[in-house]
Amino acid sequence: MKFPSLPSLLSLPYLPSPFRLLILAAITTFAASSFATTAALAQTQPAQETREVYKTTPTRQLTLTINKPADWKPADRRPAIVFFFGGGWTSGSPVQFKPQAEYFAKKGIVCLRADYRLRGRDKILPDKCVEDAISAMRWVRAHAKELGIDPNRIVAAGGSAGGHLAACTATIDTINAPADDKTISPKPNALILYNPVVDLVACGATRDSHFFAGMSASVIERISPFQHLTKNLPPTLIIDGTADQFYTQIKAFEEKCKSLGILVEARYVKDQPHGFFNRPPFQEQTTAMAGAFLVRIGYLPK
To answer: b/e for 229-243, b at 16 or more Cβ within 10 A?
Structure first.
């Protein structure tokens, strides 16, 4: 059966005028809606990923994967988030935080995902991971102008070992790469920590102590954020599950922050284990938690 075309349908003599007007109104509304949807999608699509080398090490070059908002301009002064992936300082990839980076880039934030040396691939110990994280933060602040970033609104974020590295950029002052420009601060202006390892000293008596094999007690203490907390820690969001093996130390970290007068928020999801934020529906839920935190500190509009 062949249906009449739209012009012929509207010209049918038996079609009353009111129906012709209804059809035209429906077509106009649909067209306007389609155009608006397409325009909205274009505005919220992040720019294509780019990569920049932030450090050259004896084993390889380390890069930052960058997601910029679609309407980004070099003259912008946008907030930024630097994400550090997890994997026990041994494995992992910046791909871990790709969903979060793309989401927040659509919201108007410049997002960067840092690669760093790993125990498995580069045969180094976790203190070198800390050194790389600090180098990454320095590089981002040093290049804030060309990145369209406000150097006073840089968030460090990460999960598990990556949460440890993010926390270290705010708390550890004694680890610096020889080639780093030490006049540039690596300190973040806010922290978002997903089930972070924050007390390496406390890990010594647990099944997780193998991560620090080959490290002296003094070095373990040196890169343990809990041991170096001061009132200068920036506004911090902690996201964890109550079934995480690091829950006790994370809770102690939160309480110590509060005792120092630090602006800290903690969101604990009942009965969830370590790494729960990586999978649905918790990935979406924890991203919303992070977004709400960024609104509260003024990095995203209400």
So the answer is: beeebbbbbbbbbee
Alpha-carbon distances, residue 231 vs 88, 185, 197, 206, 295 (angstroms):
28, 17, 20, 29, 22
Q: In angstroms, rounded to a whole number, what is the distance separating the alpha carbons of residues 259 and 238?
A: 16
Q: What is the pLDDT of residue 89?
A: 97
pLDDT of residue 220: 96
pTM here is 0.85
Q: Are residues 187 and 265 in the same domain?
A: yes
The whole-number pLDDT of residue 208 equals 83
In angstroms, the CA 252 to CA 275 distance is: 19
Cβ atoms 203, 167 nearer than 8 A:
no
Pick out the chain residues at pLDDT < 70.
1-47
- Work out the number of other CB atoms within 10 angstroms of the CB of residue 205: 8
Residues 186 and 223 reside in one and the same domain: yes
CA distances (Å), 218 to each of 96, 189, 200, 221, 227, in order? 31, 28, 11, 5, 12
In sequence order, what are the residues at sequence separation of 6 or more whose Cβ sits closer than 8 angstroms to the Cβ of residue 94? Answer: 65, 83, 85, 113, 114, 115
Q: C-alpha angle with apex 180: 178 to 182, nearest 5 degrees?
A: 105
Same domain, 177 and 37: no
Q: How far is CA 76 from CA 72, 172, 179, 280, in A?
A: 7, 30, 29, 33
Residues 16 and 78 in one domain: no
Total count of residues recorded for the chain: 302
pLDDT at residue 20, as a whole number: 43
Structure tokens at 79: 């907030």
Q: What is the largest CA-CA distance in the chain?
A: 92
